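User:
Can I borrow your eye for a moment on a structure tokenisation matter? Would you put together a sequence-and-structure record for a protein of your own picking? Please set it down just below, with no commentary around it:
AI:
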Amino acid sequence: MSSAHPTKDLRRSMLAALPLGIGVMAAIDEIVFHQILAWHHFFDWSTPMFGLFSDGLLHSAELILFVLGFFMFNELRTRGALDKTSAKAGFFLGMGGFQLFDGIIDHKVLRLHQIRYVDNILPYDLVWNGFGLLLLLIGFFFLRRSRATVRYVAGK
């Protein structure tokens, strides 16, 4: 294929946006639920100082993922190989994947923290994980749409 008409890279477009989605959702969680609402820290079963330290580690990880995704995304965009629909898929899959991982693994399996420390946590868990599932479904919708566009263009 000539350089005048570069081929869109669906797989790499999705993979580039995945860490962006994870980083954005981790930032939303950390800023809203850890800092503004002060409902929990990343690791709550120690001293308040260690809780703040664990939030700092989460913040560092989200920034690393965001920068990594930005450079991957920019490289594809610069080459003209970015597929926007696949990138949307990766972004939403990253956001939803983080949300569900946090809600199931961090909250229930590892018990690092709860969403909020109240008597009836079930409504919070349902909304938290339901929102993560919704984001994943949006990501799968975009992924399916990008693959269908390729099949349509290819005449399959």
Remarks:
- The radius of gyration is 18 Å.
- Residues 122-154 form the longest helix (33 residues).
- The CA atoms of residues 88 and 141 lie 10 Å apart.
- The helical segments are 10-36, 48-79, 84-109, 122-154.
